[in-house]
Amino acid sequence: SFSPRFLLAAETHTFPINADIEIEYTVYKAKGDTLFLWLYSEAGPQKIEHNIAKQLAKNNIEVWRIDLFAAHFLPIAASSMDRIPDMDISELIEYAFQQTGKKIIPVTTGRGSLPVLRGAHHWQRKYRNSHALAGVILMSPKFFVDTPEPGIKGKLLNIVKQTNLPLFVLQPKKSP
């Protein structure tokens, strides 16, 4: 059955990074003290993420789903992850904190790990005295420069070695 409450579950907003770029984000409001900045991965927006965001909001975790592809006119592709500026995520972290006062935790999957870790690292350097960033959640992150051949040790992305934040990694048991 149709529920008007569903229409109120999420609101779309924009955040101007600069005079040329606005980032669109969808807000799933919640009363708790934690906010997940959920950045799309190389797969783009997924319906399951919308469903999870609604459930998290019901459990007092606010969620902002972020579309950095549209802001930079990038195709939804793994190669686009390299082209998302660190500053975008850094500024989003601080903006979300200033707007809400909540603990900020960026969340992403797959190759989205690269811009999230780079952006969090940029935030740490720029906002040394801020207490906004509580950690990062990465689901099935892709930490390797290239997918390693079976039995061969893979080369990690440089940002993985530079990261000193609390990381929560959700990884299938049998993944590489």
Decide which structural class fits the backbone: alpha/beta
Contiguous uncertain segments of 5+ residues: 1-8
User: How many helices?
Assistant: 6
Describe the sheet with the most strands: 7 strands, mixed
H/E topology pattern: HEEEHEHHEHEHE
Terminal CA distance: 43 Å
Backbone shape: globular
As laid out across the biggest beta sheet, the strand order is 1-2-4-3-5-6-7
Care to count the β-strands?
Answer: 7
Which oligomeric state applies? single chain
Radius of gyration: 16 Å
Mean pLDDT: 88
* Percent of residues in beta strands: 15-25%
Helix content: 25-40%
Description of the structure:
With 176 residues, this protein is an alpha/beta fold. Helix content is 31%, strand content 23%. It is built from 6 helices and 7 strands. Strands 1-2-4-3-5-6-7 form a 7-stranded mixed β-sheet. It is globular, with a radius of gyration of 16 Å. It starts with a helix and ends in a 6-residue tail after the last strand.
